[in-house]
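User: Structure with adenosine-5'-triphosphate, tokens only please.
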Amino acid sequence: MRMVRPHRSPKGLFDPYYVPKRLLHRDRELDTVNGMYRDSVEEDYGVNCLVHGISGVGMTVFSRYFLTKLVPEQFKSHTVYVDAKHKDTLEIVSELNDKIHRETNRPITVAFDLDVLWMQFKRTASATDRRTIFVIDNIDETNEDVYTKVARLSKEIKASTIGVLNSHDYRLLTKLPATHMSYDFEVPLDTYTQSQLYDIVRMRVEDTFPHQLTEEVVRYVTDLVVEFDASKPKTSVEALKALWPLASSGQEIDSDAIRSATMNITSFAHDNDYIDLIETISMNDYMTLLVLEAMCEHLMRYKTETYIDRQTLNELVEVKSEELSVRYAPDDIEKSLQTLIFQSIIFESGYSRNLLYVLAPPEIIYDAAIGLRRELARRK
Ligand SMILES: Nc1ncnc2c1ncn2[C@@H]1O[C@H](COP(=O)(O)OP(=O)(O)OP(=O)(O)O)[C@@H](O)[C@H]1O
Ligand SMILES: [Mg+2]
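Assistant:
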């Protein structure tokens, strides 16, 4: 019997605070925070920690997964999440104050003065019957004082504060000689491997896409993000966002659509003068031009195919060579490919060296290659 498909919603792509049902490939890190928190609950003390990683690696979703999924399953704690980004101290404290009152079901007295707000917050946070976990996301130079104050208060009242910050701010704020940041342990979040990122993208597609995307699409997006944007899941999700309107209107996603959805990470490559580049590397090298031509022809003909495998490419080049009565040794194709890969005109997929892709629209490369090849032929 077929299981009912879960309801798919674009919220999973467009809500920055969306928490997927499962957080993939963060078991070790989740165990760390969870274990620390458990110990602090069992032995009755407050504990603070910092979660950090490169921007876009999944810090927000990590802290929110812990706060909204793991904590409620195991502990009777109050939970408060505040995103401090672009907020001044007054805004942050007043949000903390609002949320702790809501959590504890207490009426709030309207106040606009920072000291008054902090007093109210402190009073209510101290008087709870349960422990509280605060998450302050996006700590930076402008709001580190708030984090520090909340973290110190946490110690007094046996609560816990998790500060979330990107690697840059982490270095800036914690490595100074006189660090004021108060924390007991830290959870560094590493970037994902190619196959881990693939799993994450695949899961997001399954959670959100009305019509499934093909394996090729998910791989191509992942390959591009791994190669050009440090494996950031955020970039992959951005690409999915851009593809979502197309997919939900029932259109097939082709390689052009994926290239355009990842344009901002690969744009530097589009400034390449391909004619110039290809001319330089293929100086009198007929074979390299043929290889490029054959590959691009294939990708232009089959728009939903994002890769070509080496075997197919070899066969295509063989056919082309016969047509043009060009003689070559089989090794020549591989030699040409090596040059093209070395020059970043062709790329090998991270999944398999056998799969090759291009970054520029194949039409552009094709035009450059065929133009140069004809010129070479004329000169002979
Ligand atoms: N392990 C994971 N499993 C599922 N989804 C993930 C995972 N890691 C990251 N994501 C998704 O990747 C996207 C980016 O994650 P998130 O917003 O948490 O990054 P961030 O590190 O907080 O970025 P920023 O620097 O913008 O604050 C989100 O859509 C998030 O849900
Ligand atoms: Mg974030």
